[in-house]
Amino acid sequence: MIHIKNMALVVAGLASALTVVPSSGAQEALKQEAMKQDEMKHGMKQDGMKQDGMKQDSMMHDAKAKTVATGKFHSKVHKTEGRATIYQEAEGKLVLRLTGFSTSNGPDVHVILVSTTNAADDANFMKSNADRVELGGLKGNHGDQNYEIPAGTDLNKFTAVSIYCERFSANFGTAPLEKF
Predict the structure, then answer these.
(1) What is the Cα–Cα distance from 86 to 113, expressed in whole angstroms?
(2) Quick one: CA torsion of 12, 16, 18, 21, rounded to 10 degrees?
(3) Where do the domains of the chain lie?
(4) Is 76 helix (H, G, I), strand (E, B) or coil?
(5) In angstroms, rounded to a whole number, what is the distance separating the alpha carbons of residues 180 and 159?
(6) 38: which DSSP letter?
(7) How far apart are CA 146 and CA 98, in angstroms?
(8) Which of 84, 116, 117, 147 could form a disulfide with 130 if both were Cys (CB 3.0 to 4.6 A apart)?
């Protein structure tokens, strides 16, 4: 009987000694899996974000609006596509318009302007000294939508739009902006 207990202790000791640290690729896969499980656990509709396609968000700018900058989204953690365009209305108000937009659903997802060239090509750009301007929670993961840019925002400083999940520190996708 003592022999079996000793054997169990040896096996338990070996199991704890053989703890494996996943590679960065495996850690990213674990993060994505955790996000999927979180979506299933909390339901697909979270934080007011619509899962299905949005009705067209009517244009807030008038016909005299001028295109200031634009860029196409490319995927990071989740497939993200479409175009981000900044317009300046006649009275000077700035509006970010997402068109042909599509990304994955997720919790606590935000639209932000960032001062890095391309959001540093990973989710860690939020931990850097990069400046950012929060434009609001993502209105929906499909469809055209508008976000008002706060007055006084220096567009020479902010060079990309990011779709960012605060809960998982995950950059879903980025649109580097080209000035007109």
Answers:
(1) 11
(2) 150
(3) 66-179
(4) coil
(5) 12
(6) H
(7) 6
(8) 116
| Tokens encoding 28 | 């990213």
Residue where the block lists tokens 């970010």: 96
Q: How far apart (Å, rounded) are the C-alpha atoms in residues 140 and 53?
A: 7
Q: Which of 136, 53, 134, 160 is nearest to 100 (CA)?
A: 53
For residues 110 and 170, the answer to whether their CB atoms sit within 8 Å is no
Residue found by looking up tokens 């955790």 in the block: 34
Residues 6+ apart with CB under 8 A from 22: 30
Instruction: Say what the pTM is.
Output: 0.67
* Tokens describing residue 46: 């979270």
Residue 113: what pLDDT?
Answer: 94
pLDDT digits (tens, 9 = 90+) for 83-138: 999 999 989 999 999 999 999 999 999 999 988 765 554 545 566 667 889 999 99
The encoded tokens of residue 82 equal 């479409």
* Spatial contact of 92 and 149, defined as CB atoms under 8 Å apart: no
